[in-house]
Amino acid sequence: QVQLVESGGGLVQAGGSLRLSCAASGDTLRNYGMGWFRQAPEKEREFVAAISWGGRGTLYADSVKGRFTISRDNAKNTVYLQMNSLKPEDTAVYYCAASRTVTAISPVATIKPELYDYWGQGSQLTVSS
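^ thats the sequence. predicted structure below, dont judge the formating
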């Protein structure tokens, strides 16, 4: 059983930057592919970014490519999402998730939330215009 706790959300102006962290306990994250998803009010949860178990492979949604960077520190059991050039449309609750199935990057599988086994409670990001 893995427990995931996100932190680092908050209120930021458009064009600003923020870094989300996802700390894990209960198991080593080295065994999992990790992803970030987000959900805006009245919208479905959507894929944002993912990183393979070893950190060599990454995948990004087109909407965040070039602005967001996912990384992981397996020694610290933590995954990060660096968000730059933030836009009001990035406003959402951000969730990190761990997958025992999708440990390597697959453009088809990696983006599917149903393939992730453990989820954090979410961290709110609000970007003001």
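DSSP finds no helices and eleven strands in the chain.
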